[in-house]
Amino acid sequence: MPVETTVTRCGNCGASLQRSHSVESIRCNYCNQSTWLAPTTHATAAADPRPARPRETATAEADDLLEGLARGPLPESAGDGRRLGPPQAPLSDPMLFERALWPTGAEASSTFGGSWSPSTLLGTPRVYPRCGDLSGAWAPSASQSAVEWVEVSFNADVPVSAIRVYETHRPGSTYAVVDTTRGERLLYARAIESWSGAAVLEVRLDAPRVIRSLRVYVVNRGWTEIDAVCLLAAEPLPAVSRTPMAKPARAMAFATTLAIAGALVAALAAGVIFVAARSGSSHALPSVSASVGGASFGYHGAAPVAGGAQWAAALIDRSSEYSNARNAAGDALGAPDVFPRGGDVDGAWAPLATDGGYEWITVRFAAPVRAASIVWVETFNPGAVMRVDDLSDPSAPTALWTGTTGSPGVPAAVAEVTLPAPRVISAVRVVLDTRRVTGWNELDAIGLVPAAP
Q1: What distance separates the 2 farthest-apart alpha carbons in the chain?
Q2: 290-450: which CATH topology?
Q3: What angle do CA 101, 130, 300 make, to 5 degrees?
Q4: How many angstroms separate the CA atoms of 359 and 384, rounded?
Q5: Which of 20, 123, 288, 372 could form a disulfide with 451 if both were Cys (CB 3.0 to 4.6 A apart)?
């Protein structure tokens, strides 16, 4: 049976969470991570009226199969399976929208809990096509174990022709897939392998079959994590049964986006105008009335964030943001919650578009700080910051540092501008030239380091 904490706590920092009705997730006030509250066991009788699986009909052969899988990968291969990378299996694929069936219930051999609980397996992917130890994908309770499994259930009697398992940390760890609808039937078995980046294990069935529950076995080699499991119907689903992708990948191809949007001329024109507006937008560089010379810049690489930093408490302004719910400007407030991780991770501010020119964010601190330096944390495509301004007096913005940061050589880093002399600061603007570093440039936090007394 699943092993999971019964206390509603943040899966990232452990803080207590205030539950409320009719919500799927709770965002922690301390670390800004989301914890999903969907059921972690099989769907309720109201949603899934099927009787319990008739274990009494299991054969000795099935018992031997489960005992063998509980010991690890089988000595012989079975089934037709292959792994695909995000370019070969994008979430934007119209086929996925037309045929995918997503789980309505989930349980696991064990779980880290919170934002890594089995409930994250319900519905569409939350992490893929990203790869890493990221909240939003199931993770077992321990960092290493010989065998772990997840079992997902589906509320549809639809013949399916394939299964997809979305592996987002330690991909290649899945070694078996078993149909547990009635008894147990082995659909796939292979030795584990190493894979770079997120992977989709696609298991093709020899003939279409109805699957109501499915168990996936993995070797847990350092927080092996699974983001989602889906069934691919043999035929396109009725429109009312299709599930839209809640968080489409940012790297979605332009042509695929238009295909999903439809072939209507009006919709096509609107889509072209929208994309052109996003990709072609370039904000003017904010002006300053004065400059302070003598400041120096440096990266701390993957070292811990400077001790004693006072982190931004309020958002004053931003040039743009990816959305108000994901990678919003407000995600740059408070202490870092993404760092030391690096990548396109929710919890850090990202502009609306990539490589569009000047972008900026202006933040205020809870109280003026006699600062020795300004620090900010870059967690995706670092190196685009080109100026830092003191906006304590909005009518007289002062440039504290202007220059080229260059690449820190690591995915995430702490940048610091050391002032020539301590300065009382209550608000800061960080300006980026997003053309300097390709892709989204994301900031996790902005802070002031107090000067010594």
Answers
A1: 82
A2: Jelly Rolls (2.60.120)
A3: 160
A4: 10
A5: 372
In this structure, the strands spanning 290-291 and 398-402 are: parallel
At 228, list the tokens: 């989602």
pLDDT in tens, 306-340: 568 999 999 998 998 887 777 889 999 998 988 88
Count the Cβ atoms, other than its own, within 10 Å of residue 146.
11
Determine phi and psi for 271, rounding to 5 degrees: -65, -40
pLDDT of 79: 94
SS (H, E, C) the chain: CCCCCCCCECCCCCCECCCCCCCCEEECCCCCCEEECCCCCCCCCCCCCCCCCCHHHCCHHHHHHHHHHHCCCCCCCECEEEEECCCCCCCCCHHHHHHEECCCEEEECCCCCHHHCHHHHCCCCCCCCCCCCCCCCECCCCCEEEEEEEEEECCCCCEEEEEEEEEEECCCCEEEEEECCCCCEEEEECCCCCCCCCEEEEEEEEEEEECCEEEEEEEEECCCEEEEEEEEECCCCCHHHCCCCCCCCCCCCHHHHHHHHCCCHHHHHHHHHHHHHHHHCCECCCCCCEECCCCEEEECCCCCCCCCCEECCEEEEECCCCCCCCCCHHHHCCCCCCCCCCCCCCCCECCCCCCCCEEEEEEEEEEEEEEEEEEEEEEECCCCEEEEEECCCCCCCEEEEECCCCCCCCCCEEEEEEEEEEEEEEEEEEEEECCCCCCCCEEEEEEEEECCC
Query: Distance between CA atoms of 74 and 69, rounded to whole angstroms?
Result: 7
The answer to whether 432 and 386 are in contact (CB under 8 A) is yes
Q: Among residues 280, 222, 209, 244, which one has the least CA distance to residue 100?
A: 244
Each domain of the chain, given as residue ranges in start order, spans 25-249, 290-450
What's the CA angle centered on 220, arms 7 and 181, to 5 degrees?
Answer: 80
The domains spanning 25-249 and 290-450 adopt the same CATH topology: yes
Tokens 């889509």 locate to 271
Q: What are phi and psi of 277, to 5 degrees?
A: -65, -40
pLDDT tens digits along 16-34: 666 555 555 566 665 555 5
Q: Which CATH architecture has domain 25-249?
A: Sandwich (2.60)
Of 346, 354, 343, 342, nearest to 278 by C-alpha is: 354
